[in-house]
Amino acid sequence: MSSQCRSILPSKLYRAEQIKQNEADCAHRNGIDLYQLMEKAGHAVFDCVLARFPTAQHILIIAGGGNNGGDAYIVARLAIQSGMNVTLLAKNKGEALEGDAKVAMHSFVSAQGTVLDLDKHLDSIRQLDVDVIVDGLIGIGLEQTLRASTAEVIEAINHNSAPVIAIDVPSGLNANTGQPLPIAVIADYTVTFIALKPGLFSLDGPDHCGQLIYSELGLRKEFESSVSTDLSLIHRDTIVPIPKRKQNVHKGSFGTVLVIGGALGMGGAAFMAGKAALRSGVGKVYVMCEAGNEGMITQLCPELMVTGLEMLEVDRYLAEVLPKVDSVVVGPGLGLTKWSLAVISELLKQETWYQTPSVIDADGINCLAYKLDKQDGATQDAFARPDKPWVFTPHPLESARILGETVQSVQADRLGAAQRIVNKTNSAVILKGNGSIVASKGHSAINMSGNPAMATAGMGDVLSGVIGASFCAWQLNQTSLQKKLEIATYLHGLAGDFTAKESKIGMIATDVIESLPAAIWNCQEYNNKVQGN
Ligand SMILES: NC(=O)C1=CN([C@@H]2O[C@H](COP(=O)(O)OP(=O)(O)OC[C@H]3O[C@@H](n4cnc5c(N)ncnc54)[C@H](OP(=O)(O)O)[C@@H]3O)[C@@H](O)[C@H]2O)[C@@H](O)CC1
Ligand SMILES: [K+]
Known about the structure:
This protein is of the alpha/beta class. The chain has helices spanning 16-29, 34-52, 67-81, 99-110, 122-127, 148-159, 205-209, 220-226, 267-279, 294-300, 314-321, 338-349, 362-373, 377-384, 396-403, 407-412, 414-425, 459-470, 481-499, 509-530; strands at residues 12-13, 58-63, 85-90, 115-117, 132-136, 164-167, 189-193, 211-215, 231-234, 256-260, 284-290, 305-309, 327-330, 358-361, 390-393, 428-431, 437-440, 443-447. The strands form two sheets. Strands 1-9-18-17-16-15-14-13-10-11-12 form an eleven-stranded mixed β-sheet, with helices on both faces. A seven-stranded parallel β-sheet has the order 4-3-2-5-6-7-8, with helices on one face.
């Protein structure tokens, strides 16, 4: 998501329906009506045209039948008034328009603008040689799969090689979920109004928005103070600062993490989680792995305290070590075998585990989902326990396993799926993927750091180690579980951003581990400078 304009972004996100329900009241309280708001929206988009394409002569504008189309007519009028050659295509030549959008169309026509019939000019959309296209087909009014004729218009816009500015939301994109329904305009810029919508930041949203330009239309303060939300963004300005360390400290000051994983053939995952915890500043890291793997893990990282165990030795080890650690990372390379299921069964018997901050990742999730599927009472009881300091970190497939759903239903509404996992496990959740979602009861936040180079094996193991560290290495004792997880997720992505080369191809998980100290330092320095700490 590195192309998005982060520095000016607010932290709150609002669903389309919250904006629709509240924009009129907010505008009225600010002394303007909805038509004046539409004028402001049109001006904001035209400012973008002028700023990004100052030499543009010929502009193609697509206007839909709702208020998103209304904004488009304002842009078209401003373009004519500034001497541009404007081609405006509208459904039914705009004849069915009502309300403010109709007024906007008349203002365009009064400025000598001509409205052409969209359906008769599909080929023009594909082929017209223009300097810029403005997409005002559909905004936050889209609720269900596109009609075929509208999908065809979007396909035609995407076919034209001219740059595209989308008004409010790329047409066809679900503003709440980031899902194209099933196709959406691929814009170079999206000028979005009043409040940020979650779909612009998650799933396919960022690939369709291009650079995001937030235009509050003078309503941000009014809107944020009068409308509450359970959604937020995670970016540099929203994370709680990690304090700088005092000089007089020792390894005991920064906690102990236990990593449980590393079945035969998968020792590398436990190594990566353990090393990521160390690189995030943890004082001591224990690794409990399957007997036979201890040598290779120690060789990869001699700073880890590694113990290889047979099945029958696990209970004694856990009873002895769990009370000594500040957090547990369960899952990296754990496998789904007799050994790993025995490990999980022993863990479920340890009362200490339920009070210990724990990350449950990868095969930790798969083992628990498997046991749940087998109606295992201990797993059901563990899920039912309220207020555990646990976080599940599933990718979409693991999410589907926990929920007993399909990957499609998880991806169709990632924010909803994250909350369903929170409710089912009584734990926090990080639902991985583009725009990872950090969720706990009643709140979900979408992370903005990270890049496509991170789509590679082992990256989740690194994240689990960073989260393990967030519980003890950063002296965030007064910070909520949600906020700790937000910092860990952000720093993991930032370390990936620091490491990725331009092509965003070929970075590996162990590269990211080495960038963790720089990412932490960078945020501490930023905090010092910007917030004066
Ligand atoms: N309120 C204001 O004054 C302000 C509002 N603002 C702007 O208004 C936008 C919201 O406007 P909105 O609510 O009118 O909805 P909007 O995004 O234009 O979509 C409706 C159009 O989409 C079409 N359509 C829908 N579903 C479809 C489907 N499945 N398949 C195909 N078509 C479908 C639907 O067609 P219909 O179904 O009616 O034939 C209709 O033509 C918002 O994003 C912002 O840009 C700003 O100017 C600030 C002031
Ligand atoms: K649009």
